[in-house]
């Protein structure tokens, strides 16, 4: 997928607690024109296949990859978001606006089995899966996936005990644990957290099995051909064989003839782990989880915050080409297992850091754009303006002043290609007014720049391109050339349209 050269911008077009009304695909289709107007170049849609909870499933408890809301399974025909027809219509509506669509692909596990099977298994220490507990014993595992509601339509493959490496529940004794099937091994190409983090949940798919790989390639070719999506978001890659995705993505790109942009979710604060998974091939990008945690920790640090280190240890700081930056997502919402919600006061600063700088491919969370009513978290009021500044002004050479722990700034010089462009940004945690001398380039000499966010004021650029920019006591201030700052769009905070 070719990222739009006019500053690529991704939208995560869902949150965890969306209403399970089956209307989300219709909502996204109606919003497609606004996505293009707001400058989004790609939209990441939630998992589209039937989950174990049927019409209530967010999509990560995958039951049947082939059922996109077409068959009566798990108590419903539709998924949480709608029907197969509505899903395909939403993709088409978004692509018609010149915006790419990313599909959420979840291949690590299966849940909601149709039946159990007896199998010899070895219980593993949950805190170190390389260690065994006791002797192998027979368990009854939920591993039979026959998809009776689909009755062999689209694909006849049925999943059973040989397709998985382990489970976390023994129906025979009613006990939970981490059970590896005898004759199977955990993948060696995964995170070494907990000794070996191959197992995550449900029935763990054996990605080293040739039959499984062939089946997932068959499904992928069908799915990508049917939907025509432009790229994929890959779930839980930390728990999945690296070689599997190198092979699967290569096959999918060959089948579709597309570049097929891919971004993986590797949930680790250690940038070294992310770089190790990326390897030399660069077959995918990764979400910049270390940067998210920098934002989270900064937002909760109180007086200990040091803005000069806000980018330290992030993927975008060492491999910007493969970094998809974000502030929050569905997993970081309150009450989620990975809860780490950035505090509201810091979110505008965090969004400025991913939207108005040149490195990385930023992803805006729908929950920050519209708010999260379930969590009583409002929309980020400054977000739309920051998106517009990115779309129209944040171009050209970047100069950084990360030299004071409570006051940092940067400028973008702008380019002739983008008209009167350029921006100056200050982030401050200092009590009261603060100023910083910054350069926007000699090409702006003599211009008046106006503050469009934070304070009401102007500065004059000197003959060499420098000016003293003031925060006026605001935490985030943004200055733009006055000649175009007066022409900023006046768009209210987006309101989710009715279905």
UniProtKB/TrEMBL annotation:
Please list the GO terms describing molecular function: alpha-amylase activity
- SUPFAM superfamilies (alphabetical): (Trans)glycosidases (SSF51445), Glycosyl hydrolase domain (SSF51011)
Q: Which UniProt keywords apply?
A: Carbohydrate metabolism, Glycosidase, Hydrolase, Metal-binding
CDD domains reported for this sequence: AmyAc_bac_fung_AmyA (cd11318)
The family database entries (InterPro entries) matched by this protein are listed as: A-amylase_thermo, GH, GH13_cat_dom, Glyco_hydro_b
Which part of the chain is the Glycosyl hydrolase family 13 catalytic domain?
8-411
Q: Which top-rank group of organisms is this from?
A: Bacteria
User: Per the entry, which co-factors are needed?
Assistant: Ca(2+)
Q: What is its EC number?
A: 3.2.1.1
Q: Known Gene3D superfamilies for this protein?
A: 2.40.30.140, Glycosidases, Golgi alpha-mannosidase II
Which EC class does it fall in? hydrolase
**Could you tell me which SMART domains the record lists for this protein?**
Aamy (SM00642)
| PANTHER family to which the protein is assigned, alphabetical | ALPHA-AMYLASE (PTHR43447)
Family, as annotated: Belongs to the glycosyl hydrolase 13 family.
What is the protein name for this chain?
Alpha-amylase
Species classification = Bacteria, Bacillati, Actinomycetota, Coriobacteriia, Coriobacteriales
């Amino acid at each position: 997928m070719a990222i739009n050269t006019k500053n690529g911008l991704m939208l995560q077009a869902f949150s965890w607690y969306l209403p399970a009304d089956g209307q989300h695909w219709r909502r996204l289709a109606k919003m497609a024109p606004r996505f293009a107007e707001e400058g989004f170049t790609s939209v990441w849609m939630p998992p589209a296949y039937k989950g174990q909870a049927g019409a209530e499933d967010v999509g990560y408890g995958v039951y049947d990859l082939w059922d996109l809301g077409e068959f009566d399974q798990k108590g419903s025909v539709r998924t949480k978001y709608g029907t197969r027809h509505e899903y395909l219509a939403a993709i088409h509506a978004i692509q018609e606006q010149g915006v790419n669509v990313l599909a959420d692909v979840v291949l690590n596990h299966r849940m909601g089995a149709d039946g159990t099977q007896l199998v010899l298994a070895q219980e593993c220490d949950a805190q170190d899966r390389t260690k065994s507990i006791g002797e192998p014993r027979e368990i009854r595992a939920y591993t039979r996936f026959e998809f009776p509601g689909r009755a062999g339509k689209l694909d006849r493959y049925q999943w059973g005990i040989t397709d998985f490496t382990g489970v976390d529940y023994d129906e025979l004794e009613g006990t939970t644990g981490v059970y590896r099937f005898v004759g199977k091994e955990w993948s060696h190409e995964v995170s070494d957290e907990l000794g070996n983090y191959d197992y995550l949940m449900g029935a763990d798919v054996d990605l080293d099995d040739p039959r499984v790989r062939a089946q997932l390639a068959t499904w992928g070719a069908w799915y990508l051909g049917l939907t025509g999506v432009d790229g994929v978001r890959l779930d839980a890659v930390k728990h999945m064989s690296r070689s599997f995705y190198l092979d699967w993505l290569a096959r999918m790109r060959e089948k579709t003839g597309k570049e097929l942009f891919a971004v993986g979710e590797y949930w680790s604060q250690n940038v070294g782990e992310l770089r190790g998974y990326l390897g030399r091939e660069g077959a995918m990008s990764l979400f910049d989880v270390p940067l998210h945690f920098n934002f989270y920790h900064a937002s909760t640090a109180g007086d200990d915050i040091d803005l000069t280190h806000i980018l330290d240890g992030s993927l975008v700081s060492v491999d910007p080409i493969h970094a998809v930056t974000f502030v929050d997502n569905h997993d970081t919402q309150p009450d989620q297992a990975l809860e780490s919600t950035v505090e509201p006061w810091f979110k505008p600063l965090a969004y400025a850091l991913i939207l108005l700088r040149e490195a990385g491919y930023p992803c805006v969370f729908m929950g920050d754009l519209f708010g999260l009513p379930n969590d009583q978290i409002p929309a980020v009021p400054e977000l739309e303006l920051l998106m517009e500044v990115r779309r129209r002004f944040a171009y050209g050479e970047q100069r950084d002043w990360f030299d004071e722990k409570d006051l940092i700034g940067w400028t973008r010089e702008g380019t002739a290609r983008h008209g009167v462009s350029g921006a100056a940004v200050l982030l401050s945690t200092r009590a009261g007014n603060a100023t910083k001398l910054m350069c926007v380039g000699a090409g702006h000499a003599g211009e008046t720049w106006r503050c469009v966010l934070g304070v009401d004021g102007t500065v004059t650029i000197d003959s060499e391109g420098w000016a003293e920019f003031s925060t006026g006591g605001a935490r985030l201030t943004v200055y733009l050339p006055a000649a175009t700052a007066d022409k900023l769009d006046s768009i209210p905070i987006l309101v989710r349209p009715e279905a």
